[in-house]
Amino acid sequence: MATKAMISTFTVNYFGFSMALDYSVVLLTIQELWESLDGDFKLYGFVFGSYALSQAFMSPLLGYISDARGLKFAIILAILLNGAGNLLYAFSYAVGSVNMVLAGRFVAGLGAGAIALGVVYLTNTSSRDVRGRAIAGFKLSQAGGYLGGPLLAMAIISLKKPSKDASFATKVFNFYTAPVWLILSNALLILLPLTKFCFKNTLSSHMALKYTHREAKELLAHTLMLVLLLFLATSCFWAITSDLFIIAFGQYHLFNANEQLWKLYVSAGAALFIASLIVCLTIHRRITPFLYTVLGLVFNIAGLTSMAKYNINDKLYLTILYYVGVAMSTSGCACFFTGIGTYYSQKITDLSHQARNRRGLFLGTFNFAEALGRAAGPTVASLVMHIQQNPDSSKECSVDKLIPDGCEVGNINYVLPVLGGITVIVLALFVFYHIKHGKCRTDVSLLSLEELQAMPGPGEDRQMFFREEGDGEEASLSIYELTPPQSRTPSRASLSYSSKTSINTSKTV
């Protein structure tokens, strides 16, 4: 890989890491900040999910912008939006406004909508056969961010919580806001310059072809099906993941002090990172994206089963059940999202003659479903599953004082079976879909006759160069981007009858 390509790939992965860090670094403090500003506890799930909600609706738009203006422009715009949101959040306690907390996370999520652009870049720069490892590496970077957030928050957990009559400086930088100041510094001082000066747009043959929906009906049908399955599965994953504190505190009584909360998030982040690393090292032709998607759904079903409420009084056994459930669910996340993300990216490659110059829009729409599921799952779960006083216990239950002895989680044995049932349905539908439509071989030429005639012959230089408008740098394009993988380049003789692009598609199921 050329040096410029390596630096651009590093930038994309660091962007994914930074956005995941931005999401996870506030986990230890945002709920307490919300409660300290007298926010309604029932609305906390919406506040938690507002980041993903705005990310969902911004993702297709940023994908479209990347198609029109280039990936670099879209990523820089996203970084600035994310920074503006974190700035609002950082001043929320000083202003004393719960609305500012909500607005800050919502605006920051707009910038995080660009997370799909990492997959767009990898789709444009990696061949179909190595796509799984490329996207798995990107997901590993995100997993590092999810793990690093709580670890970073632990470093500032010793900071004092500000009082209402504290100085303005203390209200601005304190236990609640220190994490976002660190994230803001990373975005403006490291990520923004790295993107501006080191990232280079990629140019691919599909960008020269104008998209028309009338010729993309097959891709639209595949996208609709996979988007629906992704939304349902993501909602189930995050409905339980966002309530790990409620389950650990209310059902298993594992924590009674702020200093112990790191165990909750670090254990989940560590399991996610380790699983992502294993996927990155093992995904290839035999252990396919389809297989990892299925394994992810199966692992989540096992995790939901493990975290259900059982009539067991043994503290050690309950603790083991909880951490096994966390490990299974988070490992399921790593397998599923890497698997289905690669699966759809390969589908875009297979149907490049239909996606044409709208790859960013399609992949952004796919990410829309994931982000919307991350918003819907926690929001619905917080309305149904909550901590309450156990009527059979005389001990005190207090979330504010972190006294779990008399607590229980209401409706947990209704919620978990429903989530498990939905996941089983998603699994069955995905397997059926793959059997019917998963094995696709395309035979496509995206180039005109003139372009084919200009291509180098055997033994000649296999690189073509394009000058990016307004950039002043040369962007390299490897030969596998000129014709999609698994395609057979038509001979010059077979194309001599026409000077227009020839597209032939065959599918085997």
N- to C-terminal distance: 34 Å
Could you say how many structural domains there are in total?
A: 2
What percent strand? under 5%
What is the overall pLDDT average? Answer: 83
Q: If you compute it from the alpha carbons, what radius of gyration comes out, rounded to the nearest whole angstrom? A: 24 Å
| CATH architecture descriptor text of the largest domain | Up-down Bundle
- The strand line-up of the biggest sheet is 1-2
- The CATH topology of the largest domain is Growth Hormone, Chain: A
Helix content: 55-70%
Give the biggest sheet.
2 strands, antiparallel
Overall description:
Residues 480-509 are annotated as: Disordered. It is a multi-pass membrane protein. This protein is mainly α. It folds into 2 domains: 1-200, Growth Hormone, Chain: A; 219-440, Up-down Bundle (Growth Hormone, Chain: A), CATH 1.20.1250.20. It has 20 helices and 6 strands. It has helices at 3-24, 30-36, 44-69, 71-90, 92-95, 98-112, 115-125, 131-155, 168-172, 178-198, 217-241, 244-251, 261-282, 289-306, 315-350, 352-355, 359-384, 412-438, 449-454, 479-482, and strands at 386-389, 407-410, 443-444, 464-467, 474-477, 503-504. It has a two-stranded antiparallel sheet with strand order 1-2. Strands 3-6 form a two-stranded antiparallel sheet. A two-stranded antiparallel ribbon has the order 4-5. Strand 4 (464-467) and strand 5 form a beta hairpin. The two termini are 34 Å apart.
